[in-house]
Amino acid sequence: MLYPRKKFRKIYIEISNVCNLKCSFCPQTDLQRQSDFMTVDFFHSLVKQVSPKVYLLCLHVMGEPLNHPQLNEMIDVCEKENQAVSIVSNGVQLSDVNIKALLNPTVHQVNFSLQSFGDNFPQASNKNYLKRVFHFVQLATELRPDMHINLRLWNAGHDQKTIAQNREILAEIASFLKLDLDELAKLSLKGHRITGNIFLNLAERFEWPEVDGPIVAERGFCPALKHQFAILVDGTVIPCCFDREGVIKLGSCKEMSLDEVLSGPRSQAMREGFMQNKLVEDLCKRCTYRLRFNS
């Protein structure tokens, strides 16, 4: 499937901020924002606005996309609007219905956060969980060989428990794909194509920015509003997917058009600030993930 050149690389639409798990590395929003599921009609109105602007539409900020009871209808909307989709999932709810939805031709990429299961069920075996994920990978390889599948371990650390758990997961991946475990274990912290369109993504655990956290920097760059932005489940537009509570509210798609929001004074001030290597918003000054863009 070919797509014309678009202004943004990624746009995030949070179809729900409800998750079936409570991971230690993923801050909860239920005490700050009202838990909700986006309606298909509102989602369709957003897709119509973003599809001329973006290559890849990601169906999350917080929450678990597979938790949405109308995920299949939302993916059908994206197919109708010729919009490529990316899904990030913990993979626990890989039901037959969800698998069918994810195999839709408009789904370009599926990412599984494999550290999620052990983080929530430390005493349970992960074999059945990984078996479900691998079953999807096998189906996608056969039916959708063009789909990119990322197997993520974004919890790299130096404690022995994490090292042992990740080694166990890598062993299962190696066995499933008939790869050399020792070679997988040597891979550096980045994305690696391990076979076909299957990738292994390794990264260190990162800290989510807090508006009342310590200032990290006053100056710097970020691709927010240049390559990406996000829309929360209530229609609030934010500059990036790390603003999980909508601290930097640029506007609401329930009150104005997306173009009006993106051309508004707060959006313009942020873009101009980044162009001048200046961090305008307090949350940006406290974001350690942004340091990865300094180079």
TrEMBL record:
Ranges annotated as spanning the membrane: none
Keyword field: 4Fe-4S, Iron, Iron-sulfur, Metal-binding, S-adenosyl-L-methionine
Transcription as UniProt keyword: no
Stored SUPFAM superfamilies: Radical SAM enzymes
Lineage top rank: taxon: Bacteria
CDD domains, A to Z: Radical_SAM, SPASM_rSAM
Radical SAM core domain segment(s): 5-232
PROSITE patterns: RADICAL_SAM (PS51918)
Name used for this protein in its record: Radical SAM protein
Source organism per UniProt: Lentisphaera profundi
